[in-house]
Design brief:
By secondary structure, this protein is α/β, with parallel strands linked by helices. The chain folds into 2 domains: 136 residues, NAD(P)-binding Rossmann-like Domain (Rossmann fold); 111 residues, Alpha-Beta Complex (UDP-galactose 4-epimerase, domain 1), CATH 3.90.25. The chain contains 14 helices and 11 strands. Helix 1 crosses helix 7, helix 8 runs parallel beside helix 12 and helix 9 packs antiparallel against helix 10. It is globular, with a radius of gyration of 19 Å.
Length: 301
C-alpha cells in the first residue's frame, strides 16, 4: 500500500467523489493539487494537504509531486489536455513517483470518432511508454453529465440532446471513484492494466428521462435535437466552443450506437455492481426538481 498519493483535478466531480470514497483510508496521506486558491477551503477542512499548482505551467508542479508514491491523473476536456497530462508525467518522473493511475475516456484510440478520445489516446500512449508503473481507467459517459439538463428538466420537463435513439452504458461518477480508490490503494494488483468502466445496462435517453421523471414525480421527456442546435445551446450556457464541439461529437457517436455496450469491470474491481440510472435518479432527484435547486447546484459547482 502506498504511503502518499497526489490527487489532481481535486475540486472536479470525479476527484471529489474519489476523495469521498477514500475517506480516512488508514496509512495513506493524501495531497490535492488545486489551481484555484478560492476552491481549497473545503479540502483543508477535511484535513487534506493542498498544494497550489497549474497544469498549464510545469514550473509550478514540483512542490505537489515531491515525496508522493502515486498520482491520480485527471485532465479536463480541453484542447491542451495532452500537454497537461504530459506535465503530470514529467513532474512525476522528476519527483521519483512510482505509479500513476490515469483517467482516460471511453473508446480512447487513434481512430476514435471524437477529438477528446483521440487526444486521450496520445496521453495513454505516453504514460504507457514513460517507464512508470501505470493503470488506465476508461469510463463511459458520466450519469452526472445529465446535470447539464437540470434546468430544462425543472423548467420544461424535457431533456434535449443530440444522441438520437442510441443506447449507451453510462456510469455513475461514484462508481468511477470506487474503482479508482481500489486501484490506488493496491496499485500492484492493477499494474499495466487498462479498464473500461460502464454502468450495469446500456440505456437510451428515453429511459433516462423516464427514470428522472419517476424520481422527481413529474413527466420528463427526451427530445432529440440536431447537432447544431445542441452546440448552440451549450455555447449559450457558457461552454467554450471547443468543448461544445467535443460534446456534440460524442452525441453523434452515441446516436450511432458507438457506446452500446457494458462491461463487468466495476463489479470485478469493487465487489459490487455499479449503480443503475434508477439509483442515480433517486439519489440526485433534488438537482432536477426546481429552478431553485438547479441554481444552488450551479453555485456550488
Amino acid at each position: 500500500m502506498p504511503d502518499s498519493i497526489l490527487i489532481t483535478g481535486a475540486t472536479g466531480a470525479v476527484s471529489s467523489a474519489l476523495i469521498d470514497e477514500l475517506g480516512d483510508a488508514p496509512g495513506i496521506r493524501w495531497r490535492a493539487l488545486v489551481r484555484d486558491e478560492a476552491k481549497v477551503e473545503g479540502l483543508r477542512q477535511r484535513g487534506i494537504e493542498v498544494v497550489i499548482g497549474d497544469l498549464d505551467d510545469p514550473r509550478t508542479l514540483a512542490p505537489a509531486f515531491e515525496g508522493v508514491d502515486g498520482v491520480w491523473s485527471l485532465t479536463s476536456v480541453h484542447p491542451r489536455a495532452p500537454e497537461h497530462s504530459m506535465n503530470i508525467v514529467w513532474a512525476a518522473r522528476q519527483a521519483g513517483v512510482r505509479f500513476i493511475v490515469r483517467m482516460s475516456a471511453v473508446g480512447a484510440s487513434y481512430d476514435a470518432p471524437t477529438r477528446n478520445g483521440r487526444l486521450h489516446a496520445l496521453s495513454d500512449h505516453e504514460l504507457q511508454g514513460s517507464g512508470l508503473h501505470w493503470t488506465i481507467l476508461k469510463p463511459h459517459f458520466f450519469m452526472q453529465n445529465l446535470f447539464g439538463a437540470a434546468r430544462s428538466v425543472a423548467g420544461q420537463g424535457a431533456i434535449y440532446m443530440n444522441m438520437g435513439e442510441g443506447r449507451l452504458g453510462m456510469i455513475d461518477v461514484r462508481d468511477i471513484a470506487a474503482c479508482a480508490a481500489q486501484v490506488l490503494k493496491a496499485p500492484h494488483l492493477h499494474r499495466g492494466k487498462t479498464y473500461t468502466l460502464t454502468g450495469p445496462a446500456s440505456i437510451s435517453c428515453n429511459e433516462v428521462a423516464l427514470a428522472i421523471g419517476n424520481a422527481i414525480g413529474k413527466p420528463v421527456s427526451y427530445v432529440g435535437v440536431p447537432s447544431d442546435a445542441a452546440r448552440e445551446g451549450m455555447t449559450a450556457m457558457g461552454l467554450p466552443q471547443w468543448v461544445a464541439d467535443a460534446i456534440v461529437e460524442y452525441g453523434e457517436a452515441y446516436a450511432g450506437n458507438w457506446g452500446n455496450f457494458t462491461t463487468p469491470t466495476v463489479e470485478q474491481i469493487t465487489g459490487r455492481p455499479p449503480r443503475s440510472i434508477v439509483e442515480f435518479a433517486s439519489d440526485t432527484a433534488g438537482v432536477f426538481k426546481s429552478e431553485d435547486s438547479v441554481r444552488e447546484v450551479l453555485e456550488h459547482a
